[in-house]
Q: What sequence folds into this?
């Protein structure tokens, strides 16, 4: 009984593994958006951008930190400076324990940093004069600002959200790239299947016609040259079957691995034409301007160039650094005495830096910053023109693809019908083998040309989606799925 169950299980697995996978173009694209290596790379990059932005936002929230030394013991000879300003060596045998609680806060409106600290320390001295000392700072407020003329936080508040929005739009654009890549791989396999199908049909036809030609040659109705031509065509058909079988194997592996399929036996369906819809150049430009990453990128690059120039100007004139501190502290040899009669501590430091003569370094740096800003603006203007031109040309190209597809479909039907008639006339002995071969070649070419036109039609459609990030069939903006895993 166990052997029968095991045999049935193995047979069922073998049957499942041998089953072909049926796929439409839409299904293949949806699978690629979940399984392909490109999707995993895009997902990882987008998640990294998200957490980078979350880190930036969190940096403007209060940062709590507890640090402690438990303990710091030292027994050594140490050099110190006495009250007379002389360096002397003393024996040191002591232990220090301290703890600090701090709250740090960035101040975006001024560009400074504010911190609130609380600290307690204990020092134990060992030996003949063994005793303990305590120091307590219940609170200490410190403010530090590096420059009064350049606020990096102000620029970050403008640039970082743009970077995050740019990454979200890039995710959508790269998902449309996956659609394009899937479409190309799909039609690559579909074309290979069509080529192999035609070559097998042609080989079967050549087998039949070769037998007919041999019979006609034996009774003297055709010359030996025509028989040799038939034999040569038969050999070429065999070679085409072998070549197209290898092509089918390669393209099926390409698609199967891209979609993470467990089988390479894939049955594809010829995609239908899309429903009719019109796209105006202005509509496409409006949607691209609202949705594309490039538009955000232009703004971000301009702001970064302006920030660099502002930083150069802020550092090349009067420099003012501010550091202020206020708090309470207490030192005592008894722990209970730490919490009364606090002493006040305060410190204010303003540091000035005034450039007097630097041989034109400040001016050169400022001019370089202005030149960089001008270069960025020029490049952005050119890229924006290329951006608009790309959309304009693609809309013109898109409007002609449907006409090309209809023409190639009609040509395919005519070529197939002509081949059938030509084959029948050859069987009746009314035309030569040359006419039949020509009709067969035109029929095969027309079928492949139709698939190529259909591929161009669909790739242009997904290119249109990528250029505008807009779904014109459903009349809605293409949104990104939730990619963040908390």
A:
């Amino acid at each position: 009984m166990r052997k029968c169950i095991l045999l049935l299980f193995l047979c069922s697995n073998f049957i499942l593994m041998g089953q072909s996978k049926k796929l439409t173009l839409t299904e293949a694209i949806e699978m690629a958006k979940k399984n392909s290596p490109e999707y995993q790379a895009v997902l990882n990059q987008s998640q990294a951008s998200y957490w980078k932005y979350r880190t930036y936002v969190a940096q403007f929230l209060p940062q709590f930190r507890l640090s402690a030394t438990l303990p710091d013991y030292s027994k050594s000879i140490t050099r110190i400076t006495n009250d007379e300003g002389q360096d002397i060596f003393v024996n040191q045998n002591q232990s220090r324990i301290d703890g600090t609680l701090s709250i740090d806060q960035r101040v975006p409106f001024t560009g400074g940093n504010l911190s609130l600290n609380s600290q307690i320390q204990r020092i134990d001295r060992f030996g003949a004069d063994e005793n303990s000392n305590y120091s307590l700072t219940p609170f200490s407020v410190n403010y530090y600002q590096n420059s009064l003329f350049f606020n990096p936080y102000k620029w970050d508040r403008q640039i970082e959200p743009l970077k995050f929005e740019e990454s979200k739009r890039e995710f959508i654009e790269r998902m449309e790239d996956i659609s394009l890549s899937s479409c190309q791989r799909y039609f690559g396999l579909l074309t290979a299947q069509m080529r192999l199908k035609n070559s097998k049909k042609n080989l079967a036809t050549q087998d039949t016609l070769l037998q007919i030609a041999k019979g006609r040659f034996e009774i003297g109705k055709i010359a030996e040259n025509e028989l040799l031509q038939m034999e040569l065509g038969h050999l070429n058909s065999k070679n085409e079957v072998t070549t197209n079988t290898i092509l089918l194997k390669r393209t099926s592996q390409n698609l199967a691995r891209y979609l993470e399929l467990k089988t390479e036996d894939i049955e594809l369906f010829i995609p239908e034409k899309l429903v009719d819809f019109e796209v105006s150049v202005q509509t496409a430009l409006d949607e691209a301007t609202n949705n594309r990453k490039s538009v955000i990128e232009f703004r971000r690059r301009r702001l970064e160039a302006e920030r660099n120039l502002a930083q150069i100007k802020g550092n090349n004139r009067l420099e003012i650094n501010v550091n202020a501190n206020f708090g309470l502290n207490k030192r005592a040899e008894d722990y209970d005495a730490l919490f009364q009669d606090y002493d006040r501590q305060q410190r204010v430091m303003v540091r000035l830096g005034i450039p007097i003569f630097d041989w034109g370094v400040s001016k050169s740096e400022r001019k370089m910053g202005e030149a960089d800003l001008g270069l960025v603006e020029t490049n952005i203007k050119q890229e924006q023109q290329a951006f608009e031109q790309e959309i304009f040309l693609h809309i013109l190209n898109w409007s002609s693809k449907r006409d090309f597809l209809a023409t190639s479909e009609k040509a395919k039907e005519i070529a197939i019908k002509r081949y059938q008639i030509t084959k029948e006339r050859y069987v009746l002995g009314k035309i030569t083998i040359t006419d039949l071969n020509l009709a067969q070649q035109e029929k095969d070419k027309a079928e492949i040309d139709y698939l190529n036109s259909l591929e161009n039609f669909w790739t242009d459609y997904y290119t249109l989606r990528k250029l505008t990030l807009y779904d014109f069939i459903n009349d809605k903006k293409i949104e990104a799925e939730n990619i963040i895993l908390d």
Remarks:
- The chain is about 60% helix and 20% strand.
- Confidence is low (pLDDT under 50) at residues 1-18.
- The two ends are 50 Å apart (CA to CA).
- The domain at 29-57+154-293+379-477 is CATH 1.20.1600.10 (Outer membrane efflux proteins (OEP)).
